[in-house]
Amino acid sequence: QLQLVESGGGLVQPGGSLTLSCAASGFTLDYYAIGWFRQAPGKEREGVSCISSSGSSTTYADSVKGRFTISRDNAKNTVYLQMNSLKPEDTAIYYCARRTLRRCTGSYDFWGQGTQVTVSS
Questions:
Q1: Average pLDDT, the chain
Q2: Which residue, 27, 43, 45, 25, is CA-closest to 35?
Q3: Nearest to 50, CA basis, from 66, 70, 74
Q4: CA-CA distances (angstroms) from residue 17 to 38, 108, 110, 111, 113?
Q5: Is the dihedral of CA 100, 59, 81, 96 positive or negative?
Q6: Strand pairing of 10-12 and 115-119?
Q7: Where does residue 89 rank: exposed (0-12), middle (13-18), buried (19+ CB within 10 A)?
Q8: Percent of the chain with pLDDT over 70
Q9: Which terminus of the chain has a smaller tally of CB atoms within 10 A, N or C?
Q10: How many CB atoms within 10 Å of residue 115?
Q11: Residue 102, helix vs strand vs coil
Q12: What does the pLDDT read at residue 93?
């Protein structure tokens, strides 16, 4: 069974850090680029970051550049999103998704169930 399972969300104070994980099962992560998205209540889903299958290429939304870092460990079949200097506006459900290609282009064909991140004092 194909699965992407996000974990690592939680409640954190402004300025704090969290690391999200996206663990794949049922397929080999090596062949796919993986993206992170987020959706806040009442807002549209926003693309946050993407990493190519090899990890050599990454992209970030302007809103998170310099604060978030995406990485992957293909041996562990896992992609990470390190989030630093968190702001209340980062509060959202965070999802990871599998691209159909090795590069961060094209469409997504498979999504995780999401993990909640809440930034509040």
A1: 96
A2: 45
A3: 70
A4: 16, 27, 27, 24, 22
A5: negative
A6: parallel
A7: exposed
A8: 100
A9: N
A10: 22
A11: coil
A12: 98
